[in-house]
Predict the structure.
Amino acid sequence: MITVVDPDAARRALRAGLLSCPEAGCEGRLRVWSAARVRRVRRLGAEVVALRPDRARCRGCGVTQVLLPAWCLPRRG
């Protein structure tokens, strides 16, 4: 999982092949893989948002990553 501040900028960087793999010892670049499953996320207050984050796969090691917006904090950090 990768937390991004600006999901649109991260999507553009992903499509351009500018994001590096976060796995230790891997020098690969991430590429667009698909979209992750839809998640229902509760925002501050009672608002529930349906979120379908981008998913990426490393060209080097093959590991997949989900790019979550920074406002969507992991439930079990």
